[in-house]
Amino acid sequence: MTQQSVMLSSSLLIFFILLAPLALALVPSLITPHWHKFYAKSAVKLAFFISLLPLFLFMDQGIEIVSTNYQWMAINSFTFNIAFKFDFLSITFMSIALFVTWSILDFAAWYMHEDPYINQFFKYLLLFLTAMMVLTSANNLFQLFIGWEGVGIMSFLLIGWWYGRADANTAALQAVLYNRIGDIGLILAISWFTTNFNTLDIQQLFILNTNESSIIPLLGLILAATGKSAQFGLHPWLPAAMEGPTPVSALLHSSTMVVAGIFLLLRLHPLLQNNETALTLCLLLGAITTVFTATCALTQNDIKKIVAFSTSSQLGLMMVTIGLNQPLLAFLHICTHAFFKAMLFLCSGSIIHNLNNEQDIRKMGGLNMALPMTTSCLLIGSLALSGGPFLGGFFSKDAIIEAMNSSFLNAWALTWTLIATSFTAAYSLRIIFYVSMNFPRYPALTPILEAQQASTPIMRLAIGSVVAGFLLILNIPPPPPQVMTMPTSAKLAAIGVTIVGLFTAAELSNITNKQLKTFPYLTPYNFSNMLAYFQSTTHRLFPTLNLKWAQLLATHLIDVIWLEKSGAKSSMKINTTFSTFITNSQQGMIKTYLTLFFMSTATFLMFLLLN
Amino acid sequence: MTPTLFSIVSAFYSSLMGLALNRSHLILALLCLEGAMLSVFLMLSMWSAFQGPYSIAGTPLILLALAACEAGTGLALMVATARTHGADHLKSLNLLQC
Fold it and tell me: Which family does the entry's similarity section mention (chain B) (predicted)?
């Protein structure tokens, strides 16, 4: 009994530790210039170490806690509660998120060093982290929605951190708009559950869900995941979100916020698992996303955009895994992906800062010698991302590909995922080739220094990338039985396509300085570089359609119909028409009328006298 | 028809003819109106004197009073016409014509 209460109290303590610096920040006079170092960073570090306590208790004893803490409001039989669920998903994710955030805040203290508003930056990051914690530990969809909206708003504020830059504002607006479209799905699901199940508690939803339940809430949840996790159709905001500072990209748009959509589907997986249509939809959506974004990543020239598309591709892979009815593997991939993706972003940030804010890989090179630690960690991260044997990503990615190869599923989804896996190796090699190999293409007098303050968090995450997969596999609750026997070709498929992609990319890299063709074949290159022209068409088409419709309805129809044809002007027109007509008949010839009157009266009188 | 009635009725009709058939002056129309009014006054007085009840004996006086008001209005209109149009020729009163 004591173990449960220790677990509950330490889990809730995490929230208070994260909120304490924010409460201090409410009184501006109490914020010293070093608030971000002494309060924000140490709060996250402390929260991480405290979160290890519930994690170890869960791994050892298997304790999970659901606690309903406060009833905010009750309407007839529907209650709004503050309720927390500390189960496998939320405890593991919280520990990993806190670890990654700790490293990122360490890095951000170096990266944002000359920023005059660094305290505000850390405050935003802390607020984001708190919202993410609320999202992951929520036991009812209402509290999850609060966290959901919180992370959306903090994403907006952080992407537009350098708001003097028009591109940053556009990107922040894009993030909010695309997320909002996804929010429609979540609100649809919440409304459906409220009206049909009269509850938003996760446990009650699972019990009340029968096989005849409608697909509408599931479609809503999938739409929410599409918006938040940048699946195909609502994906453009994620590469545009790279306008924000690198710590923001590392925290929000690689490890934490973008997995919120997938996390939602994982939390409510028992609702999805019996509905074949929803699962197939997830599978195909994820497959399209992963192959499309991997194709786009092949020809990008901005290092952060390549990593952003890589994130998008891995999110597609997670969606595919959900479509395969393998929630555990998806969650495993979320956890391992957080480590190496955050590390890739931090390495990019270190490179960018050292090259005096140069982000184009065509102007980097030879950093192997200048930034040895950073480039080594870049290599480790890329190997982990590609599923290098027994590194972090291997345990999750290889398991996913094996599960795909031994499941009964759509052949196109399988093909596309394998293609995307090979592209992963290709664009990772592209980064490494352009950034760290050969000779420098940046100006000679660039002062490059590998600061200890920047390298330490990167190394911490490197250790995490290498061992996290292994440790997680050993300590999680046993998964449902998986297919362990498959033909050798299926077993080696993942590593096989990765090697194919790697060698193809290496061959292509070798011929970059040789002119084998007179003219380049630009069509597929342009298609990939312009992101399949998705942004170019939809960002113009839909607003134009909207505005034209609005003009038609508001100005033309309403003005013309209600004001001219049937309102004020119509009475004017009627009056003038009638007046013209009557004027033609009534001439006003009084004398003639009087004369006629006299004549007829005289005639009448004559008849009267004669009779 | 008695000669009295014939003369008064013909007086009325002469006035009416003058009202309808004049084409020159407004004051002639007013004069004819007064003549018609006068003949109606006479017929009303004869009616209450020679036939019927005495209770309608006050009717001619009421008619006279109203006729006087009307004559005053008509004269005011004629003066206004003379002021704006210079004379009271009927040809100059053509605002309603298209």
Answer: Belongs to the complex I subunit 4L family.
